[in-house]
Amino acid sequence: MNLDGYDRRILEALQEDGRLSNQDLADRIGLSPSPCLRRVRRLEEAGLIGAYRAVLNARALGLNLMAFIQISMDRHTPERFENFERHVGDYPEVLECHLITGQSADYLLKVIVADMDGFQALLLNKITRIDGVTGVHSSFVMKSPVSKTSLPLLSSQNA
Question: What is the set of domains in the chain, with CATH numbers?
């Protein structure tokens, strides 16, 4: 799909504030409401806009400990990977799961819990009990000076 300047401005504005009314969005990007709404619907139908979500404050919810966990698997088979991915997908503490290369680990998980007791429970009662997990290496986040949910929309892209 070719994105023009209006499309990119719509995507940028909605990444900043997904609750913008169509009128406010149209005003912000310099279109009238009807064509703006048609463009938003077209972007949604094309799959460029996948969902609208609220970004919650983890600390305000008592989730104070974030960690990255590198996971090593015993066998590299589709069944082993599918089983692992199905299990971690069910754990609300797992924010992200990535199959990776270039490391001694097979997976990188981003997790969040209330505290070290919560981390221990997640690790010992859930993650290490998944068939095939042979190694776990954890790194704890001390500070997150950059944390974004917005994707970069380069003006030269798809121009």
Answer: 5-45 (1.10.10.10), 59-140 (3.30.70.920)
